[in-house]
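Reviewers asked in the last cycle whether our approach scales beyond single polypeptides. To address this, we selected a multi-component target totalling 998 residues and predicted its structure end to end. The input consisted of the following lines:
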Amino acid sequence: MSGISPTQDTAAAASSWDDLVTTALLGTDRRPPAEAAPGREAPVALLDAAAVATVRRRAGLLPGRAAPRPEPAPGDPRPALPAAAARRLALLLADRSGGGGGRRGSSPDLTELLPQWLAAANAHGYAAPPQALPALLDAARGRTDLRPAALAFAGPRALWLARLNPDWRFALRAAPGGGATLPGAGDGEAVRRVWEEGLFAERVALLGALRARTPGRARELLEETWRKERAEDRLMFLDSLRTGLCAEDEPFLEQALGDRSRNVRATAAELLSALPGSALAGRMAARAAACVAIDHTGNSAGIVVEAPLECDPSMERDGVAARPPAGRGERSWWLGQLVEAAPLGMWPGRLGGRTPREIVALPVADGWQGELHAAWSRAAVRQRDAEWSRALLGAPSAPEAGGPGAVSLAERAKLLAALEPGERAAWVAGFIAAHGLSEAFQLLGVCAVPWAAPLGRAVVDALDIARDAGSYPWSFSGVMGLAERCLDPAQAAYLDGLLAIPDEREDAAPGSGGYWAEAFQRLVGTLRLRAAMAAELEPDTP
Amino acid sequence: MTEQGVRWTAEQVLALAPDAASRKAGSRLGTAGPWSEAGSGEGTVWGLCKGSGSRPYQTVVDLADAAGPAYKCSCPSRKFPCKHALGLLLLWADGEGAGGAVPAAAEPPDWAGQWLAGRRRRVEQRQEEGGGPAASGSADPEAARRRAERRAERVTAGATELERRLADLLRGGLAAAEQTGYGLWEETAARMVDAQAPGLAARARELGAIPASGPGWPARLLEECALLHLLDQGWLRRERLPDALAATVRSRLGLPASAEGPPVRDQWLVLAQYDTVDSKLTTRRIWLHGAGSGHTRLLLSYGAAGRAPELSLPVGLALEADLSVFPGAGQSRAALGAQHAPPAPTALRPPGVTTAEAAARYGEALCADPWLDSVPVTLDRVVPAPDGERGGWQLADADTDSALPLTPAARSRPGLWRLAALSGGAPVTVFGECGHRGFTPLTAWPQGPGAPVTLC
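The resulting structure, written as structure tokens, was:
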């Protein structure tokens, strides 16, 4: 009889029940009952008495004493989800276990839409329905990529709940300060206490939070204890200065160039080189200028490269790694690092007042073009220079853009990130129109969601062409999946013509027409679903 | 009867799914993509679903019947309802959300209309024949009486044998039972099945599991042995019992009975619906609360292994219907009679009591039926709280110092966390079963306005 506590009837009742249990356990043969009922066998009399006692005990049960109540969950001031959106969330979370394995058929993959839904709900600033929190926490537990958005949406009540269930401890770890709120920048005393006494993760979180709001304060905090920190910690702290990097950080970073740890030195140099006005950038510019020049000897202008002959200690102090990786020549390795760290703004002046586009178009002597352009690309990415990025990307339809050119696809994806979203989408659209989808996956990944109209049309046209070419749709499953998540739902109508099963052609892969129709149905279905999801999240207009 | 504005919620639709796999498959089909020519009207929903074949499946659902939805689909699935019916209902429940993928239409297409017309005709015929399946009695009362007598003799023989086995057990001691394990009780249970006393068989089988149920098992085993003995004695002396108690004994033994009580027409709110599954049978329990009468009634529905029971009433709906109770003191089981309006969403909530009143209510119910394990109770203003020891939880009154512990089974269900999240440390209203093992929460309502949250 665990559970409800018995009445404090009489001690006699309890002791007589214990007596009955003892007798029953040993058996009436070994332990005859104390008072035998007349006319009944001993075991039957025991059962009689036990039946009466059992019903009496159960009928007399009273509630127990209340344990300490949990602290009420902090309030969530965000408005409640519209009812339709709450139902959608329940469906998306119910489907969580799905996905993976098996042919996907023509119905949308709900699991893949959860991140989008969460982002949209967070953008609207809705509060999660309380009863959905356990499923949300479970989803975030299984998928680390979902955690930030899921926890932001789940809000303060989820942290309250996570404290009651060890399965959800990750939520407390993920939350800054282990679930406790970080002190505000104004609360100097509390900031100092966390910085001086906190765990490493708490200190990193504090530094990150401060850096986002008051970059100078974060740097000052770091400077105070810099010498006492361990090398690994210094590296992590230094990395958090990436956010809000500004000219005021230069003295501190310059000093870190003399750090004991090589990794810290390299990171400090990298950060300094991203500040075009810094002394380090100036030193690098001078070194790089000495290596690259206009060649006036020939009939037409060209670039000559004279790679550095040695890596002196001052270069090493500025973050140049002296030893190349296996298979690279020392001099080209040093050159790459110098050009990468030099401010791009110096080159027009150095190379005869030409624009970046003209500079990239110049021939480079002695096979240095690959090395030089790759270094410029890294510099453009690091310095987020749109004009140089544009120049280095070239025309999307250029033949070498699709092949193994000087600039790899990964580099190109990074260069694209420096462009405005519209320009980026237009470039990728041009690339797909010229080269098809097989190389486009990585480039599509950097485009803003939902895709701009020209890009969406280019992708759909390319898929259409791939279908007509007779290949199977799963050769394009990566792009298909992206399209389901990223195409603008407004473009669903554009796809209607593709839903029918085309007549099988002789050269097509057997049955591919049906699979394509199915894939396009799924695409359209997913787009409609996304449109419905977005509509449901619109606040009810009164 | 217009069906506008009474579309179900997605949770209510998913509660119809026979198993988790169907729920998943159904929710994937709950989007406009594969559907065409869908429509709804007069409590029916229909649509064509594009499957892997060339012909789309024709799916129709009839929601107008208060006995629960009826489904028809041209797919070969043996699940009931199939994923297409679930997907269609989800799409319909979605309402305007999916761009009105299931618009209200005046006339169903022919393929749906034929089935609906045939179905409605059969339902009407059944109602005209007067009161459903209970009336299908045997033609020969004399033969029926002889059959009942023969069965009573066998039950008496079974009860007598069980009494002897119990006496032997206690003569030798429960400690010995720990060694014999399941085997002895399985054999006893089989003997009781032969004796046509399924109630005794089930209880005997449960005895076998108690020695392995952890500390305190001798007391629990003695309790259950004593109650089984009480039931045997009740049967053997049934002539001397009051009629109501004798009927309770008969029903506890598993003898057939029919809902003879006068039909009570009321607005019945669906409080909870949950299934228990064993190897042969799925048992569905549906708790209803009468808004006018204040009664709480239990509907039982059965499905063969692997199939969902036919009756399905999603929580939060209310239906206008007649219920007739089964005979026996302290019994809440009832049968669904004539229905006057199909289930529809409602904001109705059951009135609640304190934890002390809930415990008292169980005590009173034991006077009528000493074999009761729990009674249905709605607790008002209780706070779910961990009670500190071994992962235990309790429901504590918001305004007094007393609390009911949750049953061990309820602690390990995911519903517990939905309850905790819904409460957030604030008082909630909870419906559940309150008994000697503790409280099993089944449905909860938030403090403010809001739909019920199922916990089972």
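Residues 264-345 of chain B form one domain. We regard this as preliminary and will revisit it once experimental data from Aim 1 are available.
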